[in-house]
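Narrative of activities, Objective 1.

The group set out to show that a structural description can be obtained from nothing but a protein's sequence at a throughput compatible with the screening campaign. Below is one input-output pair from the validation batch, recorded exactly as produced.
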Amino acid sequence: MLFNMVRINTKLTNHSSTFSIVTEHPELMSKLFVSTEEDHKVGRYTVRIYLQGGWRYITIDDRIPCNSYGTPVFARCADPDEIWVMLLEKAFAKVGGSYISLWAGNKGSEGSALEKITGGFGLRTFEHKNTEECWKKLHSMFANDTDTSSSHVATLSGKFQESQATKNLGLVGNHAYSVIRTVELSGGHKLVQCRNPWGMHEWSGRWGDKSKEWTPDLLREVNQIIGKESELHKTADDGTFFMCFEDFCKYWNTLWPVRIIDKEKCWSKKQVHGKWSNDEVRYVIFDVSQETEVAITLNQSQHLYTFIDNAEPGQVSCRVHPIVNYKLEQELASDYSNSMHLLVNDRVYKPGKYAVVIKSAKAPHRAFAVTLYSKKEIQTSQVLGEEDYFVAIGYNCFEQRTRNPNKEKRFLALNVLQTCQISISIKCDMLKDSYGYISCNNLDNKQFDKSGSCGYDLPKLDETLEKGFYQVKLDTFINNKPPPVLQYDATVRGTSRFELSEFITEEEMQDANYKYLGHVVKTVQAGTFGSAEKLEFKVNVPTATSIYLSLNRNKAANPACFSIYDVSEKEIKASPYTWGEVITMEKTDLKPGNYKLVVFEAKDKGAPSGAFKMLCYSQHALTISK
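Output recorded for this entry:
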């Protein structure tokens, strides 16, 4: 049986337009009110509403707001003996703290009400167009012969304001309708059956009840498809009508579908609970052993019985990533919203391991629930913090270093003891327009890097690193300038053992590099570039050795290079002219004897670079003098 309603105030309680949809599903209607006849005799009713990922039981009395004439102010049934709409509306008002919380201007409130009534999950808002693809999508939801393992209910929102033209067609502006079913008739006719929850005021355009398009043969065909005697197509003004898909797309622009699967035995439901505060990341890992459809929802907690303005949800982003070789691959889907209820994803997943990544932005301390629905059994973890997540996917080693406000110390020496996956991340309290850069170089100067904009989390670098020594460089910028004072934490994780230094300067990083290569002797020569284009040094090598050279300048005003000559003035090795504050020369083998080392600085556009420090790293002791 359908319970028709009369809307009294169209500016309030938009939920009431949604309530009638549940009457299309008697089994859902019977579960809404769980109180007993004895309770009803004393004016006490208990309503079951789906909130925060589970069913909540809301108890109310039967005192309904009325005007001075004794007429209910908000929604009521057309039959004065039916009070269920008023009671259900009052239960929703109690959850929100006020009838104002049910205000019709809340975008998407109809879909939210459907979720709370049915326990289903809202699919992404369906903004449909008159295309074959959109028809197939809609027909897959609402055709009589669709998959019986789930069902759909939906509300419609029109893109028109009420005018004389729409009144003539029987449509009510700023009003929610429901979708009952879709049918395809002989001749390729695509029709959508809708319902006005008032139980009157029907569409009178093409394929309306009294439309000339309805031939006796098509009436028999549509009633055969519908099947149920109580729902057969009639010409009475009962609020139920058909529209062709073309007109459906013309007058309605938004559909809020909700999928109901709580009652089906062939769906598996897994739910995990967590809590976050500002800007924290949480993870849920799930394993798929057989290809299956999975739908994932997130529900933020809500303080019940408080005024709506005191229960604002936090901004939340949810992303689903495959986990391949210990790292997150390109996201399959994402959602970002300040809604209490989000649909993260609804799609078919192939066998593999996946992570739901949940992050709050400027959210209060709030509990949440993640629910995963699947047609085949899947395995899920609990809600994990960052450290537990990395351990769960195989990162067994962990080191964290804190960088104090010292702009020179921006390097970490990383010694990877065997080939493994390494993850490097930085966290700091920075401005929203900050920018981060992470680079990781091995001794052959092969570079891995990651950069990007950041608010509070800088970019994360995930790479498979072979056994060896690496130079990790971390830079942060605000408005394209290095911040004057900044402290942050760097975290390095690995799937096997590694060694990590504290934060060190660039020169200390060079010392660590060459020490790893066995060049433990460091010889330093300081000087200043003046008007001369080159500086010469004498090098005495008592024992055969190899050397690495580095020129560290206070500023890079001009390009510079090295050259080494033997006693016969024959050039042994030279480096190319290079810009930069640090100029290096690759490994050079020297036999015992005397050599001339020349440092050239080309006179380009800038003044001389000024003071410099030349570093020579060798296996054995040697002397350098001017």
